[in-house]
Write a structure and sequence with these properties.
Layout (H helix, E strand, L loop, with lengths): L8 E3 L4 E4 L3 E5 L6 E3 L6 E3 L2 E7 L3 E9 L7 E9 L2 E10 L2 E10 L1 E7 L7 E9 L2 E7 L7 E6 L6 E8 L7 E10 L11
Antiparallel strand pairs: 1-6, 2-3, 3-16, 4-5, 6-15, 7-12, 7-16, 8-9, 8-15, 9-10, 10-11, 12-13, 13-14
């Protein structure tokens, strides 16, 4: 099911955004982020997140377009139970180039990065939650979906899911989200790239 972006609820609404049923465009506010404790010792819950409610199992996917140039510029999909249990996955700029990034948080955050492909100014991200497991896939074209991450994630009867963007080191990142859909959890094998 596709959503009208105007039907979502903001956690940390950005000062500048516009939306319709086809696309959401936002510009990040200054020093926004989601992180809990690990390595850095701080907790931040100030990133932009447009939330839509889901049930206990689902697959969500979205197209992300932006020019990621500054350390920790990031945008993608977030799934959230509460401020202590969430995941964000998408692009993040680090070490001088964009990577596909996932932060899984269950009390404390972990962080992983990968580069199955380097063209990250226009890409798709997909998250599936089912039976206490989270499967994250990324795609250049929305057709071929290599696995980015498989991890445990707390089972819940309800989640919030939607686009997220943060700029911990600056403001002014402009990101466009489109092709956002949420449906039943996919059940294809891990090595099925469809």
């Amino acid at each position: 099911m596709r959503f009208n972006f105007n039907d979502g609820t903001w956690l940390n609404e950005p000062a500048n955004w516009r939306a319709d049923e086809a696309a959401l465009t936002l510009t990040t506010d200054e020093k926004t982020d989601f992180w809990r404790e690990t390595h850095y010792g701080f907790t931040r819950d100030s990133g932009h997140f447009l939330t839509f409610p889901t049930t206990e199992s689902f697959t969500a996917q979205i197209r992300v377009q932006g020019e990621f140039r500054t350390l920790y510029d990031q945008a993608g999909l977030m799934v959230r139970i509460d401020e202590r249990r969430w995941v964000k996955s998408g692009v993040e700029f680090t070490d001088g180039e964009p990577f596909l990034s996932t932060v899984v948080t269950d009390g404390k955050s972990d962080w992983s990065v990968a580069q199955p492909f380097r063209e990250l100014e226009d890409f798709h991200i997909r998250v599936t939650i089912k039976n206490g497991a989270m499967r994250i896939q990324a795609s250049r074209d929305g057709s071929v979906w290599p696995l980015l991450r498989l991890a445990p994630f707390p089972a819940a009867t309800r989640y919030e899911v939607g686009p997220t963007a943060c700029t911990p080191e600056r403001s002014g990142l402009r990101v466009q989200f489109s092709e956002f859909s949420v449906g039943p959890a996919i059940t294809t094998g891990l090595h099925d790239l469809s």
